[in-house]
Amino acid sequence: MIVRQFISWIRNAPASERAEATRSLARAWLVSDLTADDRAAAEGALLMLLDDGSPLVRQAMAEVFARSSYAPAAIIRALSTDQNSVALPVLEHSPLLVDADLVDIVATGDCAAQCAIARRATLPASVCAAIAEVGSPSSALELIENPHAELAPFSWDRIVERHGHLAAIRESMLVLEDLPAATRLTLIAKLSDTLAQFVVARRWLSPDRAARAVGEALDRSTVNIAARSRGDDMRDLMRHLRATEQLTAGLILRALLSGNMELFEQSLVELSGLPLARVSALLDDRGGASLTALLSRAGLPESTHPAFRAALEAAHEIGFIGTVNGAARLRRRMVERVLTRCETSADTAGPLLILLRRFATESAREEASLFCDELMADDVVSARDDLIAA
Fold first, then answer.
1. For a disulfide at 65, which of 71, 219, 229, 378, Cβ 3.0-4.6 Å?
2. Low-confidence ranges of the chain (pLDDT < 50)
3. What is the structure's pLDDT at 324?
Protein backbone atom coordinates (compact mmCIF):
# COMPACT_ATOMS: atom_id res chain seq x y z
CA MET A 1 0.00 0.00 0.00
CA ILE A 2 2.79 2.43 0.94
CA VAL A 3 4.66 1.75 -2.31
CA ARG A 4 1.46 2.34 -4.34
CA GLN A 5 0.99 5.69 -2.62
CA PHE A 6 4.66 6.50 -3.34
CA ILE A 7 4.23 5.74 -7.06
CA SER A 8 1.10 7.88 -7.22
CA TRP A 9 2.75 10.81 -5.41
CA ILE A 10 6.09 10.79 -7.21
CA ARG A 11 4.59 11.40 -10.66
CA ASN A 12 3.89 15.05 -9.84
CA ALA A 13 6.52 15.82 -7.15
CA PRO A 14 9.42 18.25 -7.80
CA ALA A 15 12.76 16.70 -8.83
CA SER A 16 14.48 17.42 -5.50
CA GLU A 17 11.65 15.78 -3.55
CA ARG A 18 11.60 12.82 -5.94
CA ALA A 19 15.32 12.37 -5.41
CA GLU A 20 15.02 12.38 -1.62
CA ALA A 21 12.05 10.00 -1.73
CA THR A 22 13.99 7.68 -4.04
CA ARG A 23 16.91 7.73 -1.60
CA SER A 24 14.56 6.70 1.21
CA LEU A 25 12.97 3.93 -0.85
CA ALA A 26 16.40 2.55 -1.84
CA ARG A 27 17.50 2.53 1.80
CA ALA A 28 14.28 0.78 2.78
CA TRP A 29 15.01 -1.90 0.17
CA LEU A 30 18.41 -2.53 1.78
CA VAL A 31 17.65 -2.30 5.50
CA SER A 32 13.90 -2.58 6.11
CA ASP A 33 12.04 -5.83 6.79
CA LEU A 34 9.65 -5.59 3.82
CA THR A 35 7.05 -8.20 3.04
CA ALA A 36 7.45 -10.11 -0.21
CA ASP A 37 4.67 -8.07 -1.84
CA ASP A 38 6.14 -4.75 -0.67
CA ARG A 39 9.64 -5.76 -1.81
CA ALA A 40 8.36 -6.65 -5.27
CA ALA A 41 6.44 -3.38 -5.45
CA ALA A 42 9.49 -1.41 -4.24
CA GLU A 43 11.69 -3.01 -6.88
CA GLY A 44 9.12 -2.15 -9.53
CA ALA A 45 9.07 1.46 -8.36
CA LEU A 46 12.85 1.67 -8.40
CA LEU A 47 13.00 0.20 -11.91
CA MET A 48 10.42 2.77 -13.00
CA LEU A 49 12.56 5.55 -11.54
CA LEU A 50 15.42 4.57 -13.83
CA ASP A 51 13.43 6.40 -16.52
CA ASP A 52 12.96 9.53 -14.44
CA GLY A 53 13.81 12.65 -16.41
CA SER A 54 15.93 14.14 -13.63
CA PRO A 55 19.43 12.72 -13.10
CA LEU A 56 19.10 13.74 -9.43
CA VAL A 57 16.70 10.86 -8.90
CA ARG A 58 18.97 8.24 -10.46
CA GLN A 59 21.99 9.74 -8.73
CA ALA A 60 20.29 9.35 -5.35
CA MET A 61 19.63 5.70 -6.15
CA ALA A 62 23.21 5.17 -7.26
CA GLU A 63 24.64 6.69 -4.08
CA VAL A 64 22.63 4.30 -1.92
CA PHE A 65 23.20 1.14 -3.97
CA ALA A 66 26.81 1.74 -5.13
CA ARG A 67 28.59 -0.21 -2.36
CA SER A 68 25.93 -2.78 -1.56
CA SER A 69 26.06 -6.47 -2.44
CA TYR A 70 22.27 -6.68 -1.93
CA ALA A 71 21.15 -4.05 -4.42
CA PRO A 72 18.99 -5.24 -7.34
CA ALA A 73 21.43 -6.44 -10.00
CA ALA A 74 19.29 -5.15 -12.89
CA ILE A 75 19.26 -1.67 -11.39
CA ILE A 76 23.04 -1.70 -10.85
CA ARG A 77 23.63 -2.65 -14.49
CA ALA A 78 21.32 0.12 -15.67
CA LEU A 79 22.93 2.72 -13.42
CA SER A 80 26.42 1.70 -14.58
CA THR A 81 25.63 2.78 -18.15
CA ASP A 82 23.88 6.03 -17.20
CA GLN A 83 25.45 9.49 -17.47
CA ASN A 84 28.60 10.02 -15.44
CA SER A 85 27.03 11.83 -12.48
CA VAL A 86 24.95 8.68 -11.94
CA ALA A 87 27.26 5.91 -13.13
CA LEU A 88 30.62 6.82 -11.59
CA PRO A 89 29.89 5.78 -7.96
CA VAL A 90 28.56 2.45 -9.21
CA LEU A 91 31.49 1.88 -11.55
CA GLU A 92 34.00 2.61 -8.81
CA HIS A 93 32.41 0.69 -5.96
CA SER A 94 29.68 -1.80 -6.88
CA PRO A 95 30.61 -5.43 -6.12
CA LEU A 96 27.77 -6.60 -8.38
CA LEU A 97 29.48 -5.64 -11.64
CA VAL A 98 31.26 -8.69 -13.05
CA ASP A 99 34.51 -8.58 -15.01
CA ALA A 100 32.72 -8.80 -18.37
CA ASP A 101 30.57 -5.77 -17.48
CA LEU A 102 33.63 -3.73 -16.54
CA VAL A 103 35.62 -4.74 -19.62
CA ASP A 104 32.71 -3.74 -21.86
CA ILE A 105 32.36 -0.35 -20.15
CA VAL A 106 36.11 0.26 -20.44
CA ALA A 107 35.85 -0.40 -24.18
CA THR A 108 32.79 1.80 -24.74
CA GLY A 109 32.95 4.37 -21.93
CA ASP A 110 34.64 7.74 -21.76
CA CYS A 111 37.72 8.77 -19.78
CA ALA A 112 35.79 9.43 -16.55
CA ALA A 113 34.17 5.99 -16.62
CA GLN A 114 37.52 4.32 -17.30
CA CYS A 115 39.12 6.23 -14.41
CA ALA A 116 36.34 5.21 -12.02
CA ILE A 117 36.85 1.55 -12.89
CA ALA A 118 40.64 1.92 -12.56
CA ARG A 119 40.15 3.10 -8.95
CA ARG A 120 38.18 0.01 -7.86
CA ALA A 121 39.41 -1.68 -4.68
CA THR A 122 39.36 -5.07 -6.43
CA LEU A 123 40.60 -5.01 -9.99
CA PRO A 124 41.35 -8.37 -11.66
CA ALA A 125 43.93 -8.86 -14.41
CA SER A 126 41.35 -9.00 -17.22
CA VAL A 127 39.98 -5.54 -16.41
CA CYS A 128 43.49 -4.16 -15.97
CA ALA A 129 44.38 -5.55 -19.39
CA ALA A 130 41.39 -3.79 -20.94
CA ILE A 131 42.38 -0.45 -19.44
CA ALA A 132 45.98 -0.96 -20.54
CA GLU A 133 44.84 -1.78 -24.07
CA VAL A 134 42.23 0.93 -24.77
CA GLY A 135 42.13 3.19 -21.70
CA SER A 136 42.94 6.88 -21.70
CA PRO A 137 46.22 8.18 -20.22
CA SER A 138 44.32 9.35 -17.13
CA SER A 139 42.83 5.89 -16.54
CA ALA A 140 46.25 4.31 -17.03
CA LEU A 141 47.63 6.66 -14.37
CA GLU A 142 44.81 5.70 -11.98
CA LEU A 143 45.58 2.05 -12.67
CA ILE A 144 49.30 2.48 -11.95
CA GLU A 145 48.55 4.22 -8.65
CA ASN A 146 45.97 1.61 -7.57
CA PRO A 147 47.72 -0.80 -5.15
CA HIS A 148 44.91 -3.35 -5.62
CA ALA A 149 45.25 -3.64 -9.41
CA GLU A 150 46.41 -7.05 -10.64
CA LEU A 151 48.57 -5.90 -13.53
CA ALA A 152 50.17 -8.64 -15.60
CA PRO A 153 53.60 -7.99 -17.17
CA PHE A 154 52.07 -7.62 -20.65
CA SER A 155 49.71 -4.95 -19.30
CA TRP A 156 52.63 -2.97 -17.93
CA ASP A 157 54.31 -3.22 -21.31
CA ARG A 158 51.17 -2.10 -23.13
CA ILE A 159 50.84 0.97 -20.91
CA VAL A 160 54.45 1.86 -21.62
CA GLU A 161 53.95 1.33 -25.35
CA ARG A 162 50.85 3.53 -25.48
CA HIS A 163 51.59 6.19 -22.85
CA GLY A 164 55.27 5.92 -21.94
CA HIS A 165 56.02 9.22 -23.68
CA LEU A 166 54.02 11.05 -21.00
CA ALA A 167 56.04 12.32 -18.04
CA ALA A 168 53.29 11.65 -15.46
CA ILE A 169 53.05 8.00 -16.52
CA ARG A 170 56.81 7.52 -16.44
CA GLU A 171 57.21 9.15 -13.04
CA SER A 172 54.40 7.11 -11.47
CA MET A 173 55.81 3.85 -12.80
CA LEU A 174 59.49 4.43 -12.07
CA VAL A 175 58.86 4.93 -8.34
CA LEU A 176 57.26 1.47 -8.04
CA GLU A 177 59.57 -0.99 -6.31
CA ASP A 178 58.05 -4.08 -7.94
CA LEU A 179 57.97 -2.78 -11.52
CA PRO A 180 59.36 -5.48 -13.85
CA ALA A 181 62.95 -4.74 -14.86
CA ALA A 182 62.20 -4.98 -18.59
CA THR A 183 59.36 -2.50 -18.24
CA ARG A 184 61.54 -0.11 -16.24
CA LEU A 185 64.21 -0.23 -18.93
CA THR A 186 61.66 0.45 -21.67
CA LEU A 187 60.47 3.51 -19.78
CA ILE A 188 64.02 4.77 -19.44
CA ALA A 189 64.53 4.20 -23.17
CA LYS A 190 61.48 6.34 -23.94
CA LEU A 191 62.75 9.07 -21.63
CA SER A 192 66.17 8.93 -23.30
CA ASP A 193 64.62 9.22 -26.75
CA THR A 194 62.56 12.21 -25.63
CA LEU A 195 65.65 13.96 -24.27
CA ALA A 196 67.65 13.13 -27.40
CA GLN A 197 64.97 14.62 -29.65
CA PHE A 198 64.89 17.73 -27.47
CA VAL A 199 68.65 18.40 -27.57
CA VAL A 200 68.79 17.68 -31.31
CA ALA A 201 65.90 20.06 -31.94
CA ARG A 202 67.70 22.74 -29.93
CA ARG A 203 70.88 21.95 -31.89
CA TRP A 204 72.82 21.37 -28.70
CA LEU A 205 74.06 18.03 -30.07
CA SER A 206 74.23 16.48 -33.49
CA PRO A 207 71.94 13.48 -34.12
CA ASP A 208 74.93 11.10 -34.07
CA ARG A 209 76.29 12.40 -30.78
CA ALA A 210 72.83 12.39 -29.22
CA ALA A 211 72.30 8.78 -30.35
CA ARG A 212 75.65 7.74 -28.84
CA ALA A 213 74.85 9.52 -25.57
CA VAL A 214 71.47 7.78 -25.42
CA GLY A 215 73.08 4.40 -26.09
CA GLU A 216 75.64 4.87 -23.34
CA ALA A 217 72.98 6.08 -20.90
CA LEU A 218 70.82 3.05 -21.66
CA ASP A 219 73.75 0.69 -21.09
CA ARG A 220 74.43 2.30 -17.70
CA SER A 221 70.76 2.08 -16.80
CA THR A 222 70.62 -1.56 -17.88
CA VAL A 223 73.51 -2.53 -15.61
CA ASN A 224 71.94 -0.52 -12.79
CA ILE A 225 68.55 -2.19 -13.19
CA ALA A 226 70.07 -5.65 -13.62
CA ALA A 227 71.98 -5.21 -10.35
CA ARG A 228 68.59 -5.10 -8.60
CA SER A 229 67.00 -7.97 -10.53
CA ARG A 230 66.83 -11.60 -9.54
CA GLY A 231 65.29 -14.86 -10.74
CA ASP A 232 62.46 -14.59 -13.26
CA ASP A 233 62.79 -10.81 -13.36
CA MET A 234 66.41 -11.13 -14.51
CA ARG A 235 65.52 -13.76 -17.13
CA ASP A 236 62.69 -11.60 -18.46
CA LEU A 237 65.12 -8.69 -18.68
CA MET A 238 67.57 -10.81 -20.69
CA ARG A 239 64.84 -11.85 -23.12
CA HIS A 240 63.78 -8.22 -23.50
CA LEU A 241 67.34 -7.08 -24.17
CA ARG A 242 67.84 -9.76 -26.77
CA ALA A 243 64.51 -9.06 -28.48
CA THR A 244 65.30 -5.35 -28.67
CA GLU A 245 68.88 -5.99 -29.85
CA GLN A 246 70.34 -4.32 -26.77
CA LEU A 247 72.25 -7.38 -25.55
CA THR A 248 75.45 -6.26 -27.25
CA ALA A 249 79.12 -7.02 -26.65
CA GLY A 250 79.54 -3.50 -25.26
CA LEU A 251 76.80 -3.97 -22.68
CA ILE A 252 78.07 -7.39 -21.63
CA LEU A 253 81.62 -6.08 -21.30
CA ARG A 254 80.33 -3.16 -19.21
CA ALA A 255 78.59 -5.64 -16.90
CA LEU A 256 81.78 -7.61 -16.42
CA LEU A 257 83.88 -4.47 -15.86
CA SER A 258 81.36 -3.41 -13.22
CA GLY A 259 82.00 -6.66 -11.37
CA ASN A 260 78.41 -7.76 -12.05
CA MET A 261 79.08 -11.43 -12.65
CA GLU A 262 75.40 -12.38 -12.51
CA LEU A 263 74.47 -10.10 -15.40
CA PHE A 264 77.51 -11.31 -17.35
CA GLU A 265 76.59 -14.97 -16.86
CA GLN A 266 72.88 -14.48 -17.56
CA SER A 267 73.74 -12.63 -20.78
CA LEU A 268 75.82 -15.58 -21.97
CA VAL A 269 73.08 -18.00 -20.94
CA GLU A 270 70.56 -16.08 -23.04
CA LEU A 271 72.81 -15.76 -26.09
CA SER A 272 74.36 -19.23 -26.04
CA GLY A 273 71.29 -21.24 -25.07
CA LEU A 274 73.34 -23.18 -22.50
CA PRO A 275 72.16 -23.73 -18.93
CA LEU A 276 73.56 -21.49 -16.21
CA ALA A 277 75.56 -24.29 -14.56
CA ARG A 278 77.30 -25.08 -17.84
CA VAL A 279 78.12 -21.41 -18.51
CA SER A 280 79.54 -21.01 -14.99
CA ALA A 281 81.73 -24.08 -15.47
CA LEU A 282 83.09 -22.80 -18.79
CA LEU A 283 83.86 -19.40 -17.29
CA ASP A 284 86.03 -21.04 -14.66
CA ASP A 285 88.43 -21.84 -17.51
CA ARG A 286 89.31 -18.17 -17.87
CA GLY A 287 92.20 -18.41 -20.25
CA GLY A 288 91.48 -21.62 -22.11
CA ALA A 289 89.70 -22.74 -25.21
CA SER A 290 86.46 -23.26 -23.30
CA LEU A 291 86.02 -19.53 -22.75
CA THR A 292 86.68 -18.81 -26.42
CA ALA A 293 84.16 -21.46 -27.44
CA LEU A 294 81.54 -20.01 -25.08
CA LEU A 295 82.02 -16.45 -26.33
CA SER A 296 81.84 -17.65 -29.94
CA ARG A 297 78.68 -19.65 -29.28
CA ALA A 298 77.13 -16.53 -27.72
CA GLY A 299 77.83 -14.68 -30.97
CA LEU A 300 80.24 -12.15 -29.47
CA PRO A 301 82.74 -10.78 -32.03
CA GLU A 302 86.13 -12.46 -31.99
CA SER A 303 87.80 -9.05 -31.74
CA THR A 304 86.28 -8.63 -28.26
CA HIS A 305 87.47 -11.98 -26.87
CA PRO A 306 90.82 -10.65 -25.53
CA ALA A 307 89.00 -7.91 -23.60
CA PHE A 308 86.58 -10.42 -22.07
CA ARG A 309 89.45 -12.72 -21.16
CA ALA A 310 91.43 -9.89 -19.52
CA ALA A 311 88.32 -8.57 -17.73
CA LEU A 312 87.47 -12.01 -16.37
CA GLU A 313 91.00 -12.49 -15.06
CA ALA A 314 90.92 -9.04 -13.42
CA ALA A 315 87.53 -9.71 -11.89
CA HIS A 316 88.75 -12.89 -10.23
CA GLU A 317 91.90 -11.17 -8.96
CA ILE A 318 90.26 -7.99 -7.68
CA GLY A 319 87.08 -9.64 -6.44
CA PHE A 320 83.39 -9.17 -7.07
CA ILE A 321 81.07 -6.46 -5.81
CA GLY A 322 78.83 -7.39 -2.92
CA THR A 323 76.48 -4.40 -3.03
CA VAL A 324 73.85 -3.29 -5.52
CA ASN A 325 75.39 0.13 -6.04
CA GLY A 326 78.82 -1.38 -6.48
CA ALA A 327 77.61 -3.71 -9.22
CA ALA A 328 76.10 -0.80 -11.14
CA ARG A 329 79.30 1.19 -11.70
CA LEU A 330 82.38 0.58 -13.78
CA ARG A 331 85.38 -0.36 -11.64
CA ARG A 332 88.31 1.82 -12.52
CA ARG A 333 91.05 -0.69 -11.67
CA MET A 334 89.48 -3.35 -13.84
CA VAL A 335 88.89 -0.99 -16.76
CA GLU A 336 92.45 0.35 -16.69
CA ARG A 337 93.93 -3.15 -16.47
CA VAL A 338 91.93 -4.35 -19.47
CA LEU A 339 92.69 -1.18 -21.41
CA THR A 340 96.42 -1.56 -20.76
CA ARG A 341 96.33 -5.19 -21.88
CA CYS A 342 94.49 -4.33 -25.09
CA GLU A 343 96.62 -1.27 -25.87
CA THR A 344 99.78 -3.37 -25.78
CA SER A 345 98.31 -5.90 -28.21
CA ALA A 346 98.77 -5.24 -31.90
CA ASP A 347 95.67 -7.28 -32.71
CA THR A 348 93.20 -5.15 -30.74
CA ALA A 349 90.54 -3.61 -32.96
CA GLY A 350 90.16 0.15 -33.02
CA PRO A 351 86.46 0.25 -32.00
CA LEU A 352 87.23 -1.86 -28.95
CA LEU A 353 89.98 0.53 -27.84
CA ILE A 354 87.63 3.49 -28.31
CA LEU A 355 85.01 1.76 -26.15
CA LEU A 356 87.51 0.90 -23.42
CA ARG A 357 88.86 4.46 -23.37
CA ARG A 358 85.32 5.78 -22.93
CA PHE A 359 84.88 3.29 -20.09
CA ALA A 360 88.14 4.52 -18.54
CA THR A 361 87.02 8.14 -18.67
CA GLU A 362 83.61 7.30 -17.24
CA SER A 363 85.03 5.20 -14.39
CA ALA A 364 87.55 7.92 -13.50
CA ARG A 365 84.82 10.56 -13.34
CA GLU A 366 82.58 8.31 -11.23
CA GLU A 367 85.42 7.58 -8.82
CA ALA A 368 86.20 11.29 -8.50
CA SER A 369 82.53 12.08 -7.88
CA LEU A 370 82.31 9.44 -5.15
CA PHE A 371 85.50 10.76 -3.56
CA CYS A 372 84.10 14.30 -3.45
CA ASP A 373 80.82 13.05 -2.00
CA GLU A 374 82.71 11.25 0.77
CA LEU A 375 84.71 14.41 1.54
CA MET A 376 81.54 16.45 1.79
CA ALA A 377 79.96 13.84 4.05
CA ASP A 378 83.04 13.90 6.31
CA ASP A 379 82.85 17.71 6.49
CA VAL A 380 79.19 17.53 7.52
CA VAL A 381 79.98 15.01 10.27
CA SER A 382 82.92 17.09 11.51
CA ALA A 383 80.82 20.25 11.61
CA ARG A 384 78.11 18.46 13.54
CA ASP A 385 80.61 17.06 16.04
CA ASP A 386 82.15 20.51 16.52
CA LEU A 387 78.71 21.99 17.13
CA ILE A 388 77.90 19.32 19.70
CA ALA A 389 81.28 19.81 21.44
CA ALA A 390 80.72 23.57 21.62
1. 71
2. 322-324
3. 46
